[in-house]
């Protein structure tokens, strides 16, 4: 194997497919990934956003060589993901970390450092640094079986950081953390980016993706349905206007014959969203029907709305209604 190339993107995947055989007799097929292309450039925080079952974790498992793809190619720093030397450049936090529970937090992170090739004073100093960075120094001598889920997430991040990786792959790293813990985790990820570390960040928690990522891909049903920066994806949408109407019922507003994006009854009022190009027709229609416009303002298009639109377009919105975590 040749050495990892510093000029090559940290992650490059092309045409990834993954099909699983399921059922008692393995007679049913599930497509977890379908023709996925993905490139993460150096220094980026790149997000994978999608509902449960979208293919995010499968993508990460392929990149970590834990699962073999059914088709396509995946490379880290220009080398196949099977290359063990290249994987030494990667720090990984799985979705459900399960460190050996009878080790203390410090012992576990020390073991991770030893496996990465650290030793002696360098190892001891680095373990102290990362345990402090994830705010686990006060619990480092406790056995992991006594840790809460949030503490396990923190020590899992510490083991991923101990070898100073060039690429961090994080699968739902804020899962199980309270609001303060989520904020601290986001700060740590941003601090790593400032050091030049590339981060692949997988989540279905939309605010975390929106606040962290330089670029993101929306996955639905194993396919990439959107890709770009948050600003690009949000600003590319059709401008909408939010209107609050009094004196008319929702069915009367719908009966005006103007396409509406949403209609919601609010204690004698109706709040709706309409495309900006149709807003003046709506205003005239409401006044002509004897109603009043209480408020009319541009609506900020959010990443959550983009996500919901992507789900609707792929026919998945009704099946994942309880899975979107905002």
Biggest sheet features: 6 strands, mixed
Q: Which geometry do the CA atoms define?
A: elongated
What is the radius of gyration? 24 Å
> Remind me, CATH topology of the largest domain?
Rossmann fold
In which range does the helix fraction lie?
A: 25-40%
Family: Belongs to the ABC transporter superfamily.
Protein name: ABC transporter ATP-binding protein
Pfam family, one: ABC_tran
Domain ABC transporter: 11-246
What does this entry show, briefly?
Belongs to the ABC transporter superfamily. The chain is α/β, with parallel strands linked by helices and 326 residues long. It contains eleven helices and 14 strands.
Feature tags:
alpha/beta; AAA+_ATPase; ATP-binding; 14 strands; Rossmann fold; single chain; four-stranded antiparallel β-sheet; 2 domains; 11 helices; transport; Alpha-Beta Plaits; six-stranded mixed β-sheet; ATP binding; 326 residues; ATP hydrolysis activity; disordered C terminus
């Amino acid at each position: 194997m040749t050495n990892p190339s510093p000029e090559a993107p940290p992650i490059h995947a092309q045409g990834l497919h993954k099909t699983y055989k399921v059922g008692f007799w393995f007679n049913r097929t599930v497509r977890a990934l379908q023709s996925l292309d993905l490139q993460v450039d150096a220094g980026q925080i790149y997000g994978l956003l999608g509902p449960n079952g979208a293919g995010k974790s499968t993508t990460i498992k392929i990149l970590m060589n834990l699962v073999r793809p059914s088709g396509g190619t995946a490379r880290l720093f220009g080398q196949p993901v099977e290359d063990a030397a290249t994987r030494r450049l990667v720090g990984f936090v799985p979705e459900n970390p399960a460190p050996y529970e009878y080790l203390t937090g410090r012992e576990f992170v020390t073991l991770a450092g030893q496996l990465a090739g650290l030793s002696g004073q360098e190892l001891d100093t680095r373990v102290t640094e990362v345990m402090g960075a994830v705010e686990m120094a006060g619990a480092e001598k406790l056995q992991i079986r006594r840790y809460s889920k949030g503490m396990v997430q923190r020590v899992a991040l510490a083991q991923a950081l101990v070898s100073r990786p060039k690429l961090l792959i994080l699968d739902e790293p804020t899962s199980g953390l309270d609001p303060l813990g989520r904020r601290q985790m986001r700060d740590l990820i941003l601090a790593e980016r400032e050091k030049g570390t590339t981060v692949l960040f997988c989540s279905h928690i939309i605010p975390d993706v929106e606040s962290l990522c330089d670029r993101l891909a929306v996955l639905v049903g194993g396919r990439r349905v959107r890709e770009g920066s948050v600003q690009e994806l949000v600003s590319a949408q059709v401008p909408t206007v939010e209107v609050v109407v009094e004196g008319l019922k929702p069915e009367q507003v719908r009966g005006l014959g103007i396409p509406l994006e949403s209609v919601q009854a609010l204690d004698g009022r109706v709040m709706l969203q309409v495309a900006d190009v149709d807003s003046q027709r709506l205003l005239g229609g409401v006044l002509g029907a004897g109603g009043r416009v209480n408020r009319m303002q541009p609506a900020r298009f959010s990443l959550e709305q983009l996500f919901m639109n992507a789900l609707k377009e792929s026919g998945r919105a009704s099946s994942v209604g309880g899975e979107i975590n905002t």
